[in-house]
Structures
1.
Amino acid sequence: MLRNRNKSIIISYYTLRRLIGILGILLPFICMFGGLAAGIEVQSSVSAYYHSNMRELFTGLMSCMAVFLLTY
């Protein structure tokens, strides 16, 4: 029983690490393509999307990453 519990915890940490990495890698691309779809030109930095119409998406993605990091 203890082995099954440890295995599920390891899978959980592995999944969290993977999600954090995927979101971190995709964040600039999601902001860039979302901005282009909304008619916003490519910004000079990722944080510049906060001051554009992409604010909700940017803060949502950052909040997801924060929750994943807190649970990790």
Note: The CA atoms of residues 11 and 17 lie 10 Å apart.
2.
Amino acid sequence: MKEQNAIPTAAALLFLYVLTALTGCAPQQGAREARPTSDTIRAQPIRPNSAISEPVEVRILDVGQGDAILIRSAPAAGSAREEEHVALIDAGPANRIVGQLRALGVRHIDLLLASHNHADHIGGMDAILDSIPVRYYMDNGHPASTRIQQRVLERVEAKGVVYLQPRRRTLTVGSARLHVLPAPEGARSDDQNNRSLTVRLEVGRFQALLPGDAETELLNRLLETGEVPRVDVLKAAHHGSRNGVTPAWLSRTRPHVVAISLAENNSYGHPHERAMRYYCAGGRMVLRTDQEGDIIIRVDSAGTYTVQTERNRTVAPPAERGATTACSSYSAADTAAVEGR
């Protein structure tokens, strides 16, 4: 049949306009997100903020020697929406994460983000993708080099999860804003720790920094960008290793609370004694998952926050910071000496 040309009617044009406005430019399920045509395109909403601000819970899960950080923005009182917004940053190792999420009542995940591709950060992601509906996935963009990474990417494609390009951008998850900071150019291609995605979490005036397994090289590069602010909560980089903290890093971030995710009596010697002396200096509240279980930070829409541990110790920082089991073996003289005072 010969194709016929037609001039759209006004009604047809109006229909197309309304359809475009409704569908927007969200990535389609099962497809990789197209690269932006301009550097000014920085924000990709996971779900739009509701009209009523929602409280946010940040839970640093006790997964043993690994990382998993669960962010939940629950429906606010009076909100017409019943479903919470959920993000999970890292999910390793494999043997406990799915059971923990189910026990916490997690029924879906809007954003699953891998800071980098080591098994202690992504070991449980294939099981999650098999068990829990996931909407978006992001990693650091490094080509798959391990079987676990290949399995995760296979599941992402098979389940129709949208892959988000790992670029500098802001993702909105309920009342939480996740500012994604990819590793600046120059990291060695084989150095996964120093290619970690860093996430700055913002809720009202509250800020937390989640730097994956960043080591000294990446910490210094991030400081050079000028994008590292003062924060309320710092997730210790690389499980409290000696190369995951520097005086300059703490001087810039000035956290009230430092959370360290690690296993008891792990074979890596984490947390390193020098790192602990840095973290405990200045009266910071230092919490360890091997001692406290899950570390739970609850933030209201204004950014006021409290910290509670799974073992039922509640603290309202910064008034009570520093009085923690993690720092009990480090004297004031020891920690002051570390910072050169």
Note: The chain has one domain: 44-75+83-338.
3.
Amino acid sequence: GLHDNIIGPLIPTLIEQTHSTLQEISSIISLKSVGILIGSIIGGIIGNYLHGHRPLILFSTLCLSGLTFLCLVYTSKMGFLIAIMLILGFLHANVVMNSHILLGSLWDKLSTTAFNFVHAGTSLGGVIATLLVRPFILLDSEAGKNVNNSTKREIGPVIDSLPPDSILTCLSLFVAFFFLPLWMYNIRNRTAAKSSENVDPRSVSATEEGTIWQQMKDFYSSTNAVKAMVTLVPITLLVICSLERIFANFIVTFFSRLELKLDDGEILLVNTIYWISFSLGRILFSLIGAFLLDDIILMFTSIISVILIFFFLLIKSKVSGIVIIGFYGCIIGGLMPSVLAKINSTLRINGALAMLIEIGNSIGVLVVINLIGFVLSKYDTICFIYVCGVLHIIIVVLSICLIYFASKIEKNPRFDDEILIAKDDDILCYHTIDSLTHETSKDSSEMN
């Protein structure tokens, strides 16, 4: 979350360092999506080839990401900045893909809880990023002569980027080291597998087989329901990521043009409330996910968010605006993790699915957001709500399709530790694999 959101407050600083314009810097920053797209493909292949070492990949990419951010402090050339954005996008894709696969493998049936809780961290990073750079705002006399006072008022204050980037680098290195014990655990499990059949089913190396192309071939040589669901994965993530980014980018402009007479501080407060409620929503659904089916959570979040988005057209006061955006942020926060959990519970997120998820994400950020941003610039800001409403309706349709096709897919046997062993008087008897080894039968012919 910090990696994604700290770039925004540093835009005025990058403009001064590179002696460029806001439009040039914005175009360069959007190239991070190109890096994500490249990282989704190349990183997916490499990560799947080294699937038993995903924690080590996460350790390496987090360390490199932190060190790359530190290079922003010394960026003075446009070409250097372009290279940094492409590298950050590439590393971002690798972190997200390998994290999703690890979560799906380790948490199994509780993946709804895991995905919501972990994605709450990304939204909290959006709140913390602004707080992290605030103490390091430079005075006009310190900021340099390249950015004049009128421009500063338009694009924001210039930041002394060395302290926040250094803090971010240290945090990245600190968090990265937590993946080393998990990597050592996987190595030990793989070593034990060579001499014993008692392999922990949560081990990544024990649950993933074949190259990424073989996985795609297996998906599309399976039933029509599997083919349809795999095809829907990047489309669904494309729409959801586009919706989240569009709302976050344009909500401040929307509130600033409402007839509520909000000052700059109150408008920024609205944005902060959105991100906080967004984070709290993901934490809330992470707890609810331990008790409710992911189907219920997915349909609840998608349908209620459709209703809430049109409540923005009814805002007549500051209080109503804050209440509506708080409820909306809380509900929409659980949308993406619920979709990921549904995909994982049905197909188990592997290298191929993780790659498709990130491809949908990157295309949504790169193409859809720029396209809709261009459309919104030509029309009244109120159409922003209608655009979000249409996207929400599409998400409801996609969610229904995901649930329908998932119901047609036979449960992934790797995902459950129970197997059907007998049928007696129309009662299905289930036994765990452990108890199966001790099970005896009066008549072995009754066993199927």
Note: The first strand starts at residue 418 and ends at 424.
4.
Amino acid sequence: MSSGSAGAPMPKASPMHQFRIQVLDGAGQVFYGVTINLYARDAYLGGIEESDGEATIRYPASLGPVTVLIEADGYEAQTTIGADRSSHTFSLPTSRQRVTGGKREARCADGTSGQPCVVCAVGNSTVRICA
């Protein structure tokens, strides 16, 4: 076991979990312009507004399951992703043509943002959200 400078054992880092979200329209094509929000333990982690229908999140397993809420054209859907899943696809019963000029900007709960990814501080951990 590693030890710190004072000889105390170093705490074990929580294993990281990564999953991918995809949002498809009624024709099975990527749904552009959907808002994707992420929560853990009922706390908002961050999200992507006007996404290109895809997102990837990497977070410490110690946060527990992550709830994904999507919103687009009056539709809402959600799912909870645990360590046993690496992806989820939402299917919306409507179509959306490609929207040009999207920023592909991910944001944290504290307002920090990045293109296409951002690293968010969550307690003593970090969460990486990519548009």
Note: The mean pLDDT is 87.
